[in-house]
Amino acid sequence: MDLGRLAISLPAPGLDARACVEVARKAEREWGYDAIWLAETSGPDSFALGGALATATERATIGTAIVPVYNRTPAVLAMSAATLQQLSGGRFVLGLGSSSHAIVGDWNGVPFERPLAHVRESVAILRQALAGEKTDFAGEAFRSKGFRLGNVPKQPVPIYLAALREKMLRLAGVIGDGLIVNLFPSSALPQILAAYRAGGAEAERDVSRHEVVCRFQVMVTDDVAMARNVVRMAFGGYMSAPVYNKFLAWCGFEDEMRAVAGAFARKDRAGVAAAMSDDLVDRITILGPAERCREQIAEFVAAGVTTPVLSPLAMDRRSVEAVFEAFAPARSGA
Questions:
Q1: 7-219+304-332 CATH fold
Q2: Measured in whole angstroms, how far is the alpha carbon of residue 138 from the centre of its chain?
């Protein structure tokens, strides 16, 4: 059973920053994972945590999946990426995305506008800076002139882009070195990859061999009904957010997303949860006994995901580690 290049997601429930470092070390040395992808919401800063992981590990890829392009300038992103590439000895991947209205607009107070321009222009400035050039760029969203990195990394920094719908997917194909996706059914992967590859073709690039990183919400359990309700409670907000609501409608869940949006507009949290059907939850998450979870991951790999990233639906460190151990490549031959 092909599970691709299994990776783990950090931070995770019940783990502070120091515990994340300890788990990362164990993931590499004991469990055999060769990639760690860092999510950033309201927990540890990805670059600070990534620096600690870089010095605590020896061979694992360390990537961000993702940091937003709105709340750090391209120059700051370049400095952070260069530092992590040096600390890791060339193992770092910079994963960028537009993020969401809530994180960018509500939490950071930055208008969530022109996401395509913000992503495109941030990457353009980063390419100049990471190549050791003096920046000279003026666009719709960003401008940078005269910035030069004081310590250019010896190894190039790959830039992967997170994308949901067609326009951002095409842009990712035009300018990205890899693709980051999440929360969709395997049946939608052909249209996702088609848009990404169309962008590559537009730029006369063959992106068919690019890495496709997908974070999966995973719960190993015999009580699937309970697991579904955990997903409903944890991800109702995601389903209500405009970017994910429109994305999942595009993926074939038009009725569910219409009902979610309506309940959210009425401030009906129970209604949001109720609108998330069993079929929706089962197809966008990995739930059930371990063997069934493996089968579900394998379905996504067969459809085109190269790097499944395990994000445990858990409440404490013990249950987080149990998920990582259950799929450990060193113990399962994955």
A1: TIM Barrel (3.20.20)
A2: 28
